[in-house]
Amino acid sequence: MKDVRVEMLDAHATRGGVDLAVFAKHPGDFHALKAMHVFSGPPRAWYAVTEPLAMACLSGMVEVVLFDARRDSPTFGSLVAEVIGAERPAELYLPVGIQVGWQALGGRNALLLAGGGGDFPGDPAEPADTDRIPFDWAP
Q1: Burial, 51: exposed, middle or buried (Cβ in 10 Å; 0-12, 13-18, 19+)?
Q2: Does residue 81 lie within any of the structural domains?
Q3: Distance in angstroms (rounded) separating the CA atoms of residues 61 and 87
Q4: Distance CA 44, CA 127 (A)
Q5: pTM higher than 0.90
Q6: Cα 6 from chain centre
Q7: Which domain holds residue 117?
Q8: Is 67 in contact with 126 (CB distance < 8 Å)?
Q9: In the prediction, which pLDDT does 53 show?
Q10: Largest Cα–Cα distance in the chain?
Q11: Rounded Cα gap, residues 127 and 134, in angstroms
């Protein structure tokens, strides 16, 4: 998907556990950080990215689904699903105009960190079962 990046995270073992340098490659780009507890079960909504946004999953595993709602984008209308988390540490960088939804995987809750989006996730842009976005959240 145009302008969406996935960068794998380096995990370093320490005496206290594992250190992840989240958002360290782009210092100062993310003025607001918010941790979100993602409950297992179906997602509730799609959210609009209104400022450049970075996401990482700190605990558990999460499927993050992106819908390109940018009419002037060559990838308008396309979907991309990424799985990130403890077993696949990665950062997602999302441009303005993307709609994003997520769900915890493996029957466990997860902890998702979002950076840069100000009040993200804010109000839902679409319900999870909208016909406008051609994605089925069923397992």
Answers
A1: middle
A2: yes
A3: 7
A4: 6
A5: no
A6: 10
A7: 5-127
A8: no
A9: 85
A10: 49
A11: 12
Q: Is residue 102 part of a domain?
A: yes
Using an 8 Å Cβ cutoff, are 99 and 77 in contact? no
Q: How many domains does the chain have?
A: 1
Q: Is the pLDDT of residue 26 over 60?
A: no
Q: Is the dihedral of CA 9, 49, 131, 76 positive or negative?
A: negative
Instruction: Report the CATH number that the domain containing residue 48 is assigned in CATH.
Output: 2.60.120.10
- Say yes or no to pLDDT of 132 above 60: yes
Q: Does 133 map to a domain?
A: no
Cα-based angle 25, 26, 31 (whole degrees, multiple of 5): 140
Contact 56, 30 (CB under 8 A): no
Q: What token pair was written down for 49? A: 């990215």
**Residue with tokens 């799609």, as numbered in its chain:** 46
Distance separating alpha carbons of residues 98 and 79, to the nearest angstrom? 10
Mean pLDDT of 24-33: 51
Backbone angles phi, psi at 7, to 5 degrees: -120, 125
Tell me the Cα Rg of the chain. 15
The C-alpha atoms of residue 105 and residue 116 are separated, in whole angstroms, by 25
